[in-house]
């Protein structure tokens, strides 16, 4: 295991190097500029379409609203609780600023992904709409780029077991054992049963569950987080100041602990931002391709809200709560006092967020985080099961769906009882491997996105076609 961890770590250092961060931010910024910052300026339009889209308005399997909820079910997970904490612990308060920047450009990325997913989606042998990067690469870029679509599907099918299964199951198992004394094996078995009850019903059942559970859990967490911030309102100004200050200058932690260089703030802010909102990974458009939507731009305007809600709202609340409550300084001081100067397990991220809430809400804060993380992680398992199976379906056909779902369910138990450090490292690495083919495709197909967007707004939203081609 040590050798495998070492190899994975070396690959991680390469794929999450400066060039990858530049690629993610660069493509997102290029799309934002090409769209004339429409995703930011049209947030209100997106929300209007979202609430109008609770019922299907075209061909597809799930409503536009449930498509977004399915997407959010996969993004609002451990990244919002443990990932944010890990980012500010290793990169300092400035990491939150770079999470924001990733989200702002990521809104354009997520918009473009959904537009292309609906534009180039197909119907499979079962009559269901399927789409995502592998399909807009195949149908949009042509045969000479087919290998790129295969690469995405291969990375996505494997990555799902890390980011969407192992990390989530392990996070739930660890936090329930710590807070409620529940054995990891018991958690693994319960998660298997609950997941099986949903995913064996396909995207329709996943969408229905996500449409009810995601809004509830997101609002509940936001309300609890705002209460923590309200009780620490005197420190909010300083916390926000630290976020902007240490985004560009080295951070010297209090309590005699070592600080963080600006590069670490950027590296962990962008990496954890992408891990949380998944803009650029190419995962979310797989869900949006199944939407009963009027057309590509309509769904794109709804899809971009996922990044805004996930990072600008939920992750911000987590990050500011950690900084304003004093949990960050206290945790690092304790870390150094115990003689630990390097290395950091991801589960400590959840512990840090828990400390922030428990410090502010004694007796209940820690339990709130344990429950929130458990529900977040469960819905992420549901959403990513759909992403993974569609990647495998692209490679092997519809006959692979049931075997993949069974394997997915069985893998949950392993994830719940495995070593989280390696699982987190593997998931982080595979994130980048997924992003590369998708970002290349987004850049090459950007003229199509710009053209469809221009036509949509020029016609007052009447130039939409739902998209979809028969399976070949």
UniProtKB/TrEMBL annotation:
GO MF entry, a single one: amino acid:sodium symporter activity
Pfam families in alphabetical order: Na_Ala_symp
Domain of life: Bacteria
Keywords: Cell inner membrane, Cell membrane, Membrane, Symport, Transmembrane, Transmembrane helix, Transport
PROSITE patterns: NA_ALANINE_SYMP
Membrane topology: Multi-pass membrane protein
A cellular component annotation (GO) from this entry: plasma membrane
Segments traversing the membrane: 20-44, 65-91, 145-166, 186-206, 218-240, 246-266, 301-324, 364-386, 406-426, 432-450
Chief localisation class: membrane
Protein name: Amino-acid carrier protein AlsT
């Amino acid at each position: 295991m040590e050798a495998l961890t070492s190899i994975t770590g070396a690959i991680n250092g390469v794929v999450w190097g400066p060039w990858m961060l530049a690629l993610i931010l660069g493509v997102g910024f290029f799309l934002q500029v090409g769209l004339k910052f429409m995703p930011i300026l049209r947030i209100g339009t997106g929300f209007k379409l979202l609430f109008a889209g609770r019922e299907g308005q075209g061909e597809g399997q799930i409503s536009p609203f449930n498509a977004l909820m399915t997407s959010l079910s996969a993004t609002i997970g451990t990244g919002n609780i443990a990932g944010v904490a890990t980012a500010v612990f290793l990169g300092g308060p400035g990491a939150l600023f770079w999470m924001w920047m990733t989200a702002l450009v990521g809104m354009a990325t997520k918009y473009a992904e959904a537009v292309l997913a609906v534009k180039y989606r197909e119907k499979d042998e079962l009559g269901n709409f399927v789409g995502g990067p592998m399909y807009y690469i195949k149908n949009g870029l042509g045969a000479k780029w087919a290998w790129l679509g295969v690469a995405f599907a291969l990375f996505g099918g494997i990555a799902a077991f890390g980011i969407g299964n192992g990390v989530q199951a392990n996070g739930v198992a660890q936090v329930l054992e710590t807070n409620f004394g529940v054995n990891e094996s018991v958690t693994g078995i319960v998660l298997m049963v609950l997941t099986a009850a949903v995913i064996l019903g396909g995207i329709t059942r996943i969408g229905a569950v996500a449409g009810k559970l995601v809004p509830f859990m997101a609002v509940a967490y936001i309300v609890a987080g705002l209460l923590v911030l309200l009780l620490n309102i005197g420190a909010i100004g300083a916390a926000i100041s630290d976020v902007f200050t240490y985004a560009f200058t080295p951070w010297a932690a209090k309590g005699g602990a070592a600080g963080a260089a600006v590069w670490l703030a950027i590296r962990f802010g962008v990496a954890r931002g992408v891990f949380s909102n998944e803009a650029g990974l190419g995962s979310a458009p797989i869900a949006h391709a199944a939407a009963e939507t009027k057309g590509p731009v309509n769904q794109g305007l709804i899809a971009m809200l996922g990044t805004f809600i996930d990072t600008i709202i939920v992750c911000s609340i987590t990050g500011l709560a950690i900084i304003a409550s004093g949990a960050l300084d206290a945790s690092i001081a304790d870390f150094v006092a115990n003689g630990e100067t390097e290395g950091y397990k991801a589960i400590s991220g959840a512990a840090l967020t828990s400390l922030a809430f428990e410090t502010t809400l004694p007796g209940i804060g820690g339990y709130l985080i344990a429950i929130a993380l458990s529900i977040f992680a469960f819905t992420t398992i549901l959403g990513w099961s759909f992403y993974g199976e569609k990647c495998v379906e692209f490679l092997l056909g519809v006959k692979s769906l049931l075997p993949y779902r069974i394997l997915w369910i069985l893998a949950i138990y392993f994830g719940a009882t495995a070593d989280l450090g390696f699982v987190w490292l593997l998931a982080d690495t595979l994130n980048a491997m997924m992003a590369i083919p998708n970002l290349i495709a987004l850049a090459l197909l950007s003229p199509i996105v710009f053209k469809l967007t221009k036509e949509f707004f020029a016609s007052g939203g009447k130039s939409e076609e739902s998209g979809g081609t028969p399976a070949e």
